[in-house]
Amino acid sequence: MSEQRIAILDASHSLFNPKSHDKNAMKVDPKIDGLVLQPIPGFREIVSKSVHNGLDSGNLTLGKIAAIEVGLICDAGGVSSLTKAIHAQVMESLKI
């Protein structure tokens, strides 16, 4: 990839602490537990499905997308289709 890159992430995970997805790695004060971002259920599968659908439809180009542990990085050309697909699936999984 070159030029502009965009990351689409589950913001409840830290990019700097690889153990942030481990519930025991981060102890939270029960008083503020409701204020801490919670992981999106099935986010990795949602991202994977969105990428496969985008590649199959021709909206995304192979080599312009890189998977990371908590999301993906893509070029600017793939952002529109990916954000719409991921958002729709997240909303559906959360029943919103």
List the helices and strands and how they pair.
Layout: E1 5-9, H1 43-57, E2 65-68, E3 71-75, H2 79-94
Antiparallel strand pairs: 1-3, 2-3
Helix pairs in contact: 1-2
**Helix share, percent:** 25-40%
Q: Specify the structural class.
A: alpha+beta
Radius of gyration over alpha carbons?
Answer: 15 Å
What is the number of helices?
2
Count the domains: 1
Q: What separation lies between the terminal Cα atoms?
A: 34 Å
Mean pLDDT: 84
> Overall 3D geometry?
globular
List the main descriptive attributes of the protein structure presented here.
96 residues; alpha+beta; 3-stranded antiparallel β-sheet; 15% strand; globular
Describe the structure.
It is a single chain. The chain is an alpha+beta fold and 96 residues long. The chain has one domain. It is 32% helix and 15% strand. It contains two helices and three strands. It has a three-stranded antiparallel β-sheet with strand order 1-3-2, covered by helices on one side. α1 crosses α2. The longest helix is centred in the last third of the chain and has 16 residues. The protein is globular. 20% of the residues are buried.
